[in-house]
């Protein structure tokens, strides 16, 4: 039982399940392009972990979210993007890639930010275009990454160098 949990974002709710099986849902609808939240209170320059989001190409360019957005699961057909691409971290935000109904899980394509993930997993997103094992963009073709709605600039750069 979680005893001291308090939600970080009023418009969102965590559905708690077993280990690594919890996920974040939205209580309100969003339209494509709308900002779900600006990311605040991050711990930047964190060691890479299952819970961090990559925010650049350096080994220490990882951010702990310190909020319920930690519970955003991966999907191969995501409905949101984590956009940590601005040189100004106060502009880092989460954006809707499509219209999202209230009550829906929010999901992002982990390889859109992650080159080589700390914790790989067998994807259970259940979508038609599911890629199976998810371990970062390094292990996917550029085409597989580019067709998911949003890709961070460091991932584009690293794929370009790899493919050269
Ligand atoms: C940042 S956590 C996301 C929240 C996580 N579900 C939890 O309960 O803590 C990332 C981990 O969640 C799990 N996960 C996320 N998306 C998944 C998916 N599509 N299929 C299977 N496991 C997933 C994996 O174990 C992954 O390492």
TrEMBL record:
Record keywords: Methyltransferase, S-adenosyl-L-methionine, Transferase
Could you state a single Gene Ontology molecular function term? methyltransferase activity
Q: Which domain of life is it from?
A: Eukaryota
Which organism's genome codes for this protein? Mycena alexandri
Query: What GO biological process terms are annotated to this protein in UniProt?
Result: methylation
- State one Pfam family annotation: SET
Q: What is this protein's record name?
A: Post-SET domain-containing protein
* Chain ranges of the Post-SET domain: 119-135
Q: Does the keyword Cell wall biogenesis/degradation apply?
A: no
Record keywords: S-adenosyl-L-methionine included?
Answer: yes
What residues does the SET domain cover?
1-111
């Amino acid at each position: 039982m979680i005893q001291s949990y308090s939600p970080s974002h009023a418009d969102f709710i965590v559905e708690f399940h077993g280990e690594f099986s919890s996920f974040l849902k939205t209580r309100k609808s969003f339209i494509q392009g709308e900002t779900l939240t600006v990311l605040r209170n991050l711990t930047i320059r964190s060691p890479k972990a299952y819970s961090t989001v990559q925010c650049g190409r350096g080994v220490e360019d990882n951010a702990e979210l310190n909020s319920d957005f930690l519970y955003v699961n991966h999907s191969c057909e995501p409905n949101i993007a984590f956009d940590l691409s601005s040189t100004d971290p106060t502009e880092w935000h989460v954006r809707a890639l499509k219209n999202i109904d209230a009550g829906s899980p929010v999901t992002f394509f982990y390889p859109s930010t992650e080159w080589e993930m700390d914790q790989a997993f067998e994807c259970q997103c259940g979508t038609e275009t599911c890629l199976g094992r998810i371990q970062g963009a390094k292990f996917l073709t550029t085409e597989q990454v580019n067709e998911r709605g949003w890709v961070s600039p460091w991932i584009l750069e690293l794929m370009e160098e790899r493919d050269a």
